[in-house]
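Lab notes, practical 5.
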Amino acid sequence: MTALLAVEGLHSGYGHVEVLRGIDLQVQPGEIVALLGSNGAGKSTFNNTVSGIVPARRGRILFDGHAIAGTHYRAIVQAGLIQVPEGRRIFPNLSVLENLELGSFTRARERRGPNLERVFGIFPRLRERTRQLAGTLSGGEQQMLAIGRGLMAEPRLLILDEPSLGLSPLLVEELFGLIGRLHGEGLAILLVEQNVGQSLEIAQRAYVMENGLVEFSGTPSELLASDRLRKAYLGL
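Output from the prediction step:
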């Protein structure tokens, strides 16, 4: 099976600072892959490089077999690789509906109506708040909005960057239930998280990143079976 996302020897960074130092990673169609690591490990830089926001310096990024390193981020979105960034990045002075509609600005605009209904089916609270300014939503509702906006683009691969950050334990449970539901519908997900336990419960494979390098790749059971890895990189 051809990987939906294949990253080979990826180097990236900012100015004179090299953050990623040769990353190899794959996501298969319909698979949840967990990308784990502490703050500063390079996870968000990886996401932004794959998404075309930060330029790759060396290496290959293939999406559905097509090279996308150096491609404009808008073309990457059009191909179906969608990122829900850390911190939600909603537009606080726009309404919930306007935020959602912006999700389909580049991709799936002609199916905006049906996709809105799908998002409202997943997040009924957003339907109740369509005219409300996004900045007045609770933290959990803002995360719903950010994910809903990503779904409006009909992603083939959804990158979720720290989606549980700042959420209450109850909302974290709801979030991971949603991720499992989207996976059940066949959506491929790259889950970038510090919530190690719940990420490993739903992922088929996992990568552990440290200092811009992949220190482990394999199944969650293989990762949890290694005392060294659990203690050194996961704090378990």
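Observations recorded by the TA: DSSP finds ten helices and ten strands in the chain. The longest strand covers residues 17-27.
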